[in-house]
Design brief:
The complex is a heterodimer.
Chain A: H1 29-32, H2 43-57, H3 67-88, H4 90-100, H5 110-119, H6 132-151, H7 156-189, H8 201-232
Helix pairs in contact in A: 2-3, 3-4, 4-8, 6-7, 6-8, 7-8
Chain B: E1 7-11, E2 15-22, E3 25-28, E4 38-39, E5 41-44, E6 50-52, H1 54-62, E7 67-69, H2 83-88, E8 105-107, E9 110-112, H3 114-133, E10 139-144, H4 150-162, E11 166-172, H5 173-185, E12 189-196, E13 201-209, E14 212-221, H6 226-244, H7 253-272, E15 275-281, E16 287-293, H8 294-306, H9 309-318, E17 328-332, H10 339-349, H11 362-374, E18 385-387, E19 394-397, E20 403-407, E21 415-421, E22 431-437, E23 447-455, E24 467-473, E25 479-485, E26 493-498, H12 504-513, H13 518-546, H14 555-571, H15 577-590, H16 592-607, H17 614-617
Parallel strand pairs in B: 1-10, 10-11, 12-17, 14-18
Antiparallel strand pairs in B: 1-2, 2-3, 2-4, 5-6, 5-7, 8-9, 12-13, 13-14, 15-16, 19-20, 19-22, 21-24, 22-23, 23-26, 24-25
Helix pairs in contact in B: 3-4, 5-11, 6-7, 13-15, 14-15
The chains are: A mainly alpha, B alpha+beta.
The complex binds adenosine-5'-triphosphate (ATP).
Adenosine-5'-triphosphate binds near residues 12, 225 and 338 of chain B.
């Protein structure tokens, strides 16, 4: 690639010859920070790098530049911000990596639930088998709580049960976080030094699928916690 | 490269200010009347000319129908949004404004949109700055409430353009305030900025780190401020008047304005005293008199002040912080002078808030700092960089009217999101997209930003086209959309129809319509001002010729003066203000000695206890001037 301004060979954010900002390129978030696709990330150094790049790329520094340079700076900074926001959050980071690995995570979000309700469509939401019994019980309690609310009654037993369920599921979320850490370590170990991706394709898919399952369970439980909180409020 | 002149503007609900960076400190540029605050009031005078600020406020009291205030409340809003405000504010909305349309407000014979009215205020500030610098000013940083949505920001930017200003950046008010504080503090830590002004409330939480001002979370209410307290007191006073004095003043604009003014004065007095009187003359020779204690006032204002609590809690939660993790709290906005607000903030953040900087001025000062940074900066601002966030989530209306969020609130800007769309019917060539802003689950509860059609999709079986749409929120917090059909590689056309905004064509037309704008306006005003200066010095010279000291000048000096006088008389017939100014300066130089002689004689006569020789000095310049210094004229 030649620099648009001085026509010398250029790569990276700035031309090595004349220092002008270069057009924004499509890139994944790990590459933007020149990181391998590892899930254990040193957050303080990620933050330092974010600040360092902000000081070079932010549109404030190009207020006197051409419209084209301003546009590139805005685009690059949006990539930087999007990448930083995603990578600094453990769950968002994991989800993003799985997307890069070609997985479409199940829609467990609130809006998907509502959309399903509105359209009457069956929502793809598989109850994790080991939770089946607990979820069944919880749903009954929630139903009872709602009915109580409708008639303006207050059953302290139900409230107590729900509070217990709330604690129980939050405990489960914590366990999942520990489990996720193990998966991260396993994934990262697959990436040989000097490489950005796992080389062992079989292991790659195995660990990937473990994490997909874990994130789905996690968002399922989070939705349960949300429903309980709503019922209790 | 030389730094360009960019001014910082606080376009407030109640007051507006313009500031710039003088060396290492930001300073406010005063208006012609010497005051820093320009009331955000626009009125039509007897000659059908727009006036702004204090003169407009006078007209507001006497002829409320010819004046508009608090127009910021209407920026970027539609008729359906403002039904509640209309009960409280005497906005005269044109009858034929329809839902989803930009508002038009009646002022005299004319109908103006909110951006046009704001532009009149901006033009006044621009003029004040140009007078101050004696040079054109064409670039500005304008502040907006952090919680302003896309439409409100766009409307503010449009107002700048209509006023002939290139709006280099929109900066959030609390963030600007933190810049003004950070400039001399230079300390790392977590800062909360609580900004309660005339019409809006913002709370922002920032992390300061080696000159980077990183906003962690922001929240607020764009319709909460001192105005609301005034309205509540006004409603109570009007009830009192109806009950006790058997007088209904609701229909009388003048009486309401007089009462409103008195209430605001009382409110302000109660920030310093524990008791204040309200005393207003009403129609039919009646009079409303009351004594209000601070306690009673606080009782009445409490529900409004309490409305700031939830946004503060939400901002803390979004920043994942406990109140005790906040290192500093800064108070911004005139309404934070209310003692109860002060104590509430102290309770909320468990910390004594900062009030070193004038809360009315700090936002404009911060805007000047940001303007300075954008113009290239200097040693003081070298390491300073603002990283702001978008206050509201951005979403797309999905099936069943629910919102699919694509950019979460409190994301650092610029921020972007890419979404893919397809067709539902065979051969479909366009797809409609509805973009909304807000936190609610249903699109109908969120703010509609724009609807657009992706057009020019090549006919294909249903579900086959893959249209990639990129949403980008820029550093001003304003949304840009672009789209591409990926299978054909064709750039899809987008026609964005802003829901409550002005189209580009409308803005262009308004720029043309606003008769006095930009360069041409500046030239004309400079010529008028230069001619006035010429007039002043020539009149003074006339007086000097008749003064006894004239005889003490040498013949040579007298010829010099006559020559310069002739040159100035020639120049002031022309339209070149630089030539006129040059000739004025030359005549100033030539009459230096005369001026000194006159001053000496004036001083000695004053010392002798005589009255000033009125005939000699009358009509002379009142500004400092070589021929007769202003200090001596005693009028
Ligand atoms: N001493 C005081 N005590 C109480 N209220 C005051 C005092 N001084 C000013 N105010 C109120 O502060 C408000 C104006 O504040 P400010 O100038 O900061 O707002 P603004 O910038 O015009 O508004 P906004 O930021 O909402 O757009 C008015 O409602 C005014 O009545």
């Amino acid at each position: 690639m030649l620099c648009w301004s001085c026509r010398q060979p250029a790569s990276g954010h700035f031309c090595p010859s004349c220092g002008k900002i270069q057009p924004a390129q499509a890139t994944d978030y790990f590459s933007f920070f020149s990181l391998p696709r590892k899930l254990n990330i040193d957050l303080p150094s990620l933050e330092r790098e974010f600040y360092r790049l902000s000081r070079k790329l932010h549109p404030d520094l190009f207020a006197r530049g051409s419209a084209q340079e301003q546009e590139w700076s805005t685009e690059k900074t949006s990539q930087l911000n999007d990448a930083y926001r995603t990578l600094k959050d453990p769950i968002a980071r994991t989800g993003y990596l799985l997307e890069l690995e070609g997985v479409k995570l199940e829609e467990q979000s609130r809006s998907a639930t509502d959309a399903a309700r509105q359209t009457g469509a069956e929502k793809k939401q598989v109850v994790p088998p080991d939770l089946l019994e607990e979820v069944f019980e919880l749903n009954m309690q929630l139903e009872e709580m709602r009915m109580n609310k409708q008639v303006g009654e207050d059953d302290p037993n139900i409230v107590r049960d729900l509070q217990q369920a709330q604690q129980h599921f939050e405990q489960k979320l914590n366990e999942l976080t520990t489990e996720l850490q193990n998966d991260w370590n396993e994934w990262d170990a697959l990436i040989p030094a000097g490489s950005t991706e796992p080389q062992d394709q079989q292991a790659r898919i195995r660990v990937r699928d473990k994490m997909v399952d874990l994130l789905n369970r996690r968002s399922y439980i989070r939705n349960l916690v949300r429903d309980v909180n709503e019922a209790l409020s | 490269m030389n730094n360009e002149l960019i001014v910082g503007i606080d376009l407030g609900t109640t007051n507006s200010l313009v500031a710039y960076m003088q060396g290492e400190t930001p300073v406010i540029i005063p208006g012609e009347d010497g005051s820093n605050l320009v009331p955000s009031v626009v009125a039509l005078d007897n000659h059908g000319q727009f006036v702004v600020g204090n003169p407009a406020r006078k007209i507001l009291i006497e002829h409320p129908e010819r004046a508009i205030y608090s127009v910021k409340r209407l920026m970027g809003r539609g008729i359906e949004d403002i039904q509640d405000e209309l009960k409280l504010f005497p906005f005269r909305i044109a009858q034929d404004v329809e839902w989803g349309e930009v508002l038009r407000i009646k002022l005299g014979e004319r109908e103006l949109t909110p951006p046009e009215i704001s532009a009149i205020i901006l033009r006044q500030l621009k003029k004040n700055a140009e007078r101050f610098f004696a040079a054109p000013v064409s670039k500005a940083v304008i502040t907006v409430p952090a919680y302003f949505n896309d439409a409100q920001r766009q409307a503010t930017k449009d107002a700048g353009r209509i006023a002939g200003l290139d709006v280099v950046r929109l900066v959030n008010e609390p963030t600007a305030a933190s810049l003004a504080y950070g400039l001399d503090k230079k300390k790392d830590g977590i800062v909360a900025v609580y900004d309660l002004g005339g019409g809006t409330f913002d709370i922002s939480i920032l992390k300061l780190h080696e000159g980077i001002f990183e906003v962690m979370a922001t929240n607020g209410d764009t319709h909460l401020g001192g105005d609301d307290i005034d309205n509540r007191l006004l409603a109570i006073a009007m009830d009192d008047i109806a009950n006790d004095l058997k007088l209904d003043i609701r229909r009388s604009g003048e009486a309401v304005q007089a009462l409103r003014k008195a209430i605001i004065e009382t409110k302000i007095a109660l920030s310093a005293k524990t008791e204040a009187n309200i005393d207003v003359e009403l129609p039919q020779g009646k009079r409303y008199q009351r004594t209000i204690t601070r306690e009673r006032f606080e009782q009445l204002a409490e529900p409004i002040i309490q409305r700031t609590v939830q946004p503060c809690k939400q901002a803390l939660a979004d920043a994942k912080l406990q109140p005790d993790q906040i290192d500093e709290v800064v108070l911004v906005g005139g309404s934070t002078r209310i003692p109860r607000v002060h104590t509430l903030v102290k309770e909320l953040f468990q910390r004594e808030p900062h009030t070193e900087l004038n809360p009315d001025e700090v936002v404009a000062l911060g805007a000047a700092v940001q303007a300075h940074i954008l113009s290239g900066g200097s040693a003081v601002t070298q390491d300073m960089l603002l990283l702001d966030v978008t206050p509201l989530s951005l979403g797309i209306e999905a099936l069943g009217g629910v919102v699919a969020k694509i950019i979460q609130r409190n994301s650092t800007i610029p921020a972007s999101a890419t979404e893919h769309f397809t067709t539902g019917v065979e051969g479909q060539t366009s797809v409609a997209i509805h973009v909304v802003q807000g936190e609610r689950e249903l699109a109908s509860d969120c703010r509609s930003l724009a609807r657009f059609d992706l057009k020019g999709i090549p006919p294909m079986p249903a579900g086959l086209p893959r249209i990639e749409v990129k949403f980008l929120i820029d550093a001003n917090g304003i949304l840009h959309v672009s789209a591409r059909e990926q299978r054909s590689g064709k750039e899809a056309e987008i026609e964005v129809k802003p829901t409550y905004g002005l189209t580009d064509d409308q803005v262009e037309k308004m720029i043309l319509d606003s008769f006095d704008y930009a360069e041409e306006d500046f030239q004309r005003r400079q010529v008028i001002e230069a001619r006035n200066e010429a007039e002043i010095i020539l009149t003074a010279l006339e007086k000097g010729r008749r003064a006894p000291v004239w005889q003490r000048l040498s013949e040579d000096e007298k010829t010099q003066i006559a020559q310069r006088e002739a040159e100035l008389n020639g120049a002031r017939k022309g339209n070149d203000y630089k030539q006129i100014r040059g000739a004025v300066d030359a005549l100033n130089q030539a009459t230096m000695n005369l001026a000194e002689l006159m001053m000496d004689s004036a001083v000695s006569s004053a010392l002798k206890g005589k009255n000033m020789d009125k005939t000699e000095m009358e009509g002379g310049p009142t500004q400092s001037h070589p021929i007769a210094p202003a200090e001596i004229t005693n009028d």
